[in-house]
Amino acid sequence: MDSERPLKPFIIPPWADLLWGAALTALWMVVAVGLYSSSWLMIIFATLLYSFVCAAVFTRWPRDADFGWANRATLFRSSLIIVLVAAAPFIPTSTPDSGLWLYAIGALLALILDGVDGKLARATNSGSEFGARFDMEMDALLILGLCIAVIVSGKAGAWVLALGLMRYLFVAAASLLDWLNNPLPDSFRRKTICVWQIVTLMVAILPPAPPVFVGLTLATALLLLFWSFMTDVYWLYQRRFHHETV
């Protein structure tokens, strides 16, 4: 009697997921071009951003491993975020009641989708370090795009970019100080401040939001973000020697 061979699990290669992600990004882009009548710069910018996603997947994810439903949810969300970031500099300020409202709705959809990948990871037991980093970088990119949109809308000055650039300054510092690369524990404080950033930036884009209110809420978000980063940096600094000796 021949022994039965176990069936191999069905694996969708990462490049196949990146193909439908590219198609979805192109679809969002068609909508954005129709809404904002932008130039080729927006399309080129979106293409570059999606190329970075592809490079990250090809270099960080095993080619013989299924991409997983949690990562697919993040990829779906990233296609929308990439177009939002690419469209941010081209929002027509002459028609804010249409352009800004639609942009805010797109950002709200991206925020709602933020929790889907985490739920899928827990439901399918497919959480990974790559997936967590993928989701976090998409959050940072969305915040940066919202900062640009707020500046273009004229609601606040260039100082708002500090909200979007602080994450990247931390990454740059970590390339010089190795102890900043050590893992941080899960933090409700960190997640709450991230959501607060996105919400305040979305509200700032809305046409009825007065500049004084926008300035106060965004300044509060910046102070909270700075405090959160300093708290994490201090925590990592205190434990730098422990990680070096382990």
Tell me what you see in this structure.
The chain has 246 residues and is mainly alpha-helical. The protein has one domain: Four Helix Bundle (Hemerythrin (Met), subunit A) (Up-down Bundle), CATH 1.20.120. Helix content is 74%, strand content 0%. It contains 10 helices and no strands. The chain has helices at 14-36, 40-60, 69-87, 96-112, 114-124, 129-153, 161-174, 188-205, 211-238, 240-245. The mean pLDDT is 88.
List the helices and strands and how they pair.
Layout: H1 14-36, H2 40-60, H3 69-87, H4 96-112, H5 114-124, H6 129-153, H7 161-174, H8 188-205, H9 211-238, H10 240-245
Task: Put the structure in a nutshell.
With 246 residues, this protein is an all-alpha fold.
Strand content: under 5%
- Contiguous low-pLDDT stretches (5 residues minimum) are none
Largest sheet: none
Number of separate domains: 1
What's the level 1 CATH class?
A: Mainly Alpha
Number of strands: 0
Q: Assign an overall shape.
A: globular
